Amino acid sequence: MNTMMVVLGAIVLFLGFNSLQSHAQVAVDKNNSGSVWQRTITTENHDDGLVARSISSNLALGKASFASSTDDITNRPARMAFDGNTGTRWSSAYSNEQWIYVDLGSVQPITSVVLQWDIAYALMFQIQTSNDETTWNTVYYNYNGNGGTNTIPLLTSTRYVKMYAWQRATQWGYSLFEMEVWGSATNPPSGPINVLDYLRSISGRQTVIGMHNREPNSSPAVQTNAVYSITNRWPGLWSGDFLFTADDVNHRWTMINEALNQWRSGSIINIMLHVVPPTQSEPGNWNGGVVSRLSDAQWHELITDGGTLNRAWKVRLDNYAQYLQYLKDRGVQVLFRPFHEMNQGVFWWAGRPGSSGTAALFRLTRDYLVNTKGLTNLIWVWNMQDLDLNWSVYNPGNNYWDIFSLDVYNGDGFTTQKYNTAMSVANGKPIAIGECSTLPTSYQLASQQNWVFVMSWAELTFSSNTNAQIQALYSASNVITKDELPKFY
């Protein structure tokens, strides 16, 4: 490990002393890829015996990022400027006005921004900050850029940091190997935190372990309890489902009350929607119900506002909304995954690519539940299966979902190709393993560290993994169980 020592001016903190002489040094540690990952600032007072230490970190590392454009969405997306690897880069389209920004997850005190340019750099650019992603304040500007590495001292607090450029130096666009945002690492929040903000904050570092509890809804914690009996640890995420049979429909309130109890005990809540089509009434069946097919004419009627099936689906959503409103009224945030495996053609809602396909039903459902029913407690999860890698054709639109999740079942496991494709499709948003039978190892999660949660599927957890494998994952330092979660609000 290489270490470079840089002397900084001291920051003097008045701690009730009349005089404080300080000395500050910064150690910049690099990992094997040559990327800077942490600065340690040590402030010492040799006269009074006071020693105060604080950590300065690259707060942008692995965080959600967004850009005006990219010239190659697969190889040079926005996230490449925040991956800690100077062997990768973000590259914009070949035009003057472009931007890239990062979401730090919460308001953080920052001390500098570092831009590491490729040969395609900006002659004129600004650094802007925002706390709401709408109003931007210019805190630095440069009308005579010269590329290379720009270290820009700043003393401010912000959540979003943007590089906004309007004059290119070359015939290409703009290209950044890395955009770093340095600041004093804050302690974990002492008060409650939003679930989505928390998941964003752990991306690149740790993964929440979760468990789905499948039917019956009369016993909505069977698998969660079973994994505790093996590991003596509770999963960090509990999952349930509205389901469709008569017994399960009759016990939906049992499932919802379990969700409330799990939330109050500290779990993250995930709820799914395996239901029959609006051509049928509830309750229904798996075969001929959940597993069925609408005709193209029926599909068009479903996604067209005012159509008979469209109205029937909204009546169905009114029913689901009462349960979700009950949770909202009690402060429960819900990871809501309404359309399971959107590329899996066996389900009535799935297997229809394109803007007017399954994505249209996702948009319709979100618009109705959020805009009409006011369910602002839902965190929307877009879910695909690893049948292929052509997931973008099912994207409902980046403004319609918060987390991309992948179900891993096709036999070749947690491949780098799947991980990289998920990162590309998510374009800076959190990614997760929505379902799996065989669990990943902690080593696999360490090499694919942006998965924010992994949820195993109910009874398959125990038939596809040994007790020793389950115990090893639940006890791994990069895996988060319920006892390690913060308090949510």
UniProtKB/TrEMBL annotation:
Keyword annotations: Glycosidase, Hydrolase, Signal
UniProt entry tagged with the keyword Hydrolase: yes
Keyword rRNA-binding: no
Positions of the F5/8 type C domain: 43-184
Pfam family, one: F5_F8_type_C
UniProt record, GO biological process: substituted mannan metabolic process
Protein family according to the UniProt entry: Belongs to the glycosyl hydrolase 26 family.
Segment forming the signal sequence: 1-24
UniProt protein name: Uncharacterized protein
InterPro entries from the UniProt entry: FA58C, Galactose-bd-like_sf, GH, GH26_dom, Glyco_hydro_26
Organism: Adineta steineri
Start and end residues of each GH26 domain: 190-483
GO molecular-function terms, A-Z: mannan endo-1,4-beta-mannosidase activity
SUPFAM superfamilies hit by this protein: (Trans)glycosidases, Galactose-binding domain-like
Any coiled-coil regions, as ranges: none
